[in-house]
Write a structure and sequence with these properties.
The protein is of the alpha+beta class and about 240 residues long. It contains 3 helices and 11 strands.
Length: about 240
């Protein structure tokens, strides 16, 4: 199921919907929520769709419980009630909402699998993130697990599980070990060409349903185009 909003935005696949939650596949280059660009964002597009499909009067409630960077596509869950939003937010905070990503990077990590721990500091003026020493003011610890899934023609496919949700975390941590993401202009302009799409995709999301208490698992695959089509994406 998908819809096309009144502003002519790309179709947004709906992976699951009930009275409590809405799970969708975020398009690449669409903001998760309204930003300074004023471009149509996913949250408001989904609200408009719910209002139209269910003929709802007044404002539509839709709770944002996690985010994806604008260039990143893949699976996201939204809450359709305040109770669901509160419980899903708690799941995010207690790391019970399991997020898995795939990325294509330049080069190959020195280890086939590892846990990366860095301290990251965000410069709000430039919206860039840097790896800094532990203890620096306003720096936050970032932790992820990665696994090498394949290598070909100077590129590697990496599977990633996040333990923290810091801004630009995956992009910065992988760049810090010499594996810049394909298409990343912000943290890899030396090896990427202008116009290339960032190769980072939220491929799986698992959590307990906030009301029914059932285990939910959703999977989303990146588009069949370069550089993704050089690899087979396994079940993670």
């Amino acid at each position: 199921m998908a819809f096309k909003d009144d502003y002519g935005a790309s179709q947004i696949p709906i992976l699951f919907e009930d009275n409590h939650i809405l799970v969708v596949e975020k398009p690449v280059n669409m903001p998760t929520q309204e930003d300074e660009s004023r471009d149509l964002d996913l949250l408001n597009a989904l609200k408009a769709d719910i209002k139209e499909r269910y003929n709802k009067p007044g404002n539509v409630y839709l709770g944002l419980v996690h985010r994806l960077d604008r260039p990143v596509g893949g699976v996201m869950v939204f809450a359709k009630t305040s109770k669901a939003a509160s419980r899903l937010s708690d799941a995010v905070r207690t790391r019970q909402l399991d997020k898995t990503y795939v990325a294509v990077v330049h080069g190959k990590p020195s280890q086939p699998a590892a846990t990366l721990r860095h301290w990251l500091w965000k410069d709000t003026r430039t919206n860039t993130v840097s790896v800094v020493k532990a203890g620096q003011q306003d720096a936050k610890e970032a932790v992820l697990d990665y696994k090498l899934l394949g290598s070909q023609d100077g590129l590697s496919l990496i599977g990633i599980k996040l333990h923290t949700g810091r801004p630009h975390q995956i992009r910065v941590q992988l760049a810090a070990i010499g594996c810049t993401l394909y298409g990343d202009q912000r943290y890899g302009s030396a090896v990427n060409k202008p116009g290339q799409q960032l190769a980072l995709w939220a491929t799986a999301l698992s959590f307990e349903h906030p009301v029914l208490k059932e285990n939910m698992h959703f999977r989303s695959l990146p588009p069949e185009q370069r550089p993704w089509n050089q690899f087979t994406i396994p079940e993670l």
